[in-house]
Amino acid sequence: MKLNFCFHLILLLLLQMTIPGSAQCPLDAILNPSAPAKRISCFSVVNSGKLSFCPAGSVVTGCACGYGCGSWDVGGGKPHATTSATQ
């Protein structure tokens, strides 16, 4: 009896959450059509050696160690908080 009561109580709470208009955070509040659009620019950089530099206006955002940490993610914008690699 107690298990049956708990099941129906949980079912009732779940059904209440699916009723439109009763959501605590409506989708319109999450999506902001006036937000500025972000652009991602991708480009290939062929540079080798320990003293390689990023092109102007770009920064290293990560390192992929599939090639002995010789493959770096380079992008325009701010780098991640921690960017480190060993060679």
Question: What distinguishing features does this structure have?
Answer:
alpha+beta, disordered C terminus, 87 residues, elongated, 2 helices, 15% strand
Oligomeric status of the shown chains? single chain
Largest sheet: 2 strands, antiparallel
Share of residues in helices: 10-25%
Strand proportion = 5-15%
Overall shape: it is elongated
- Structural class computed from helices and strand pairing: alpha+beta
Keywords: Disulfide bond, Hormone, Secreted, Signal
GO molecular function, one term: hormone activity
GO cellular component, one term: extracellular space
InterPro entries: RELM, Resistin-like_sf
Task: Put the structure in a nutshell.
The chain has helices at 2-17, 27-30, and strands at residues 58-64, 71-76. The chain is of the alpha+beta class and 87 residues long.
Description:
A two-stranded antiparallel ribbon has the order 1-2. The chain has helices at residues 2-17, 27-30, and strands at 58-64, 71-76. It is elongated and about 75 Å long. The protein has 2 helices and 2 strands, in the order ααββ. The protein has a domain at 46-80. With 87 residues, the protein is α+β, with helices and mostly antiparallel strands. The longest helix has 16 residues, at 2-17. Mean pLDDT is 65; it is low at 79-87. InterPro entries: RELM (IPR009714), Resistin-like_sf (IPR036262). Belongs to the resistin/FIZZ family. Its main location: secreted. This is Resistin. Residues 1-23 form the signal peptide.
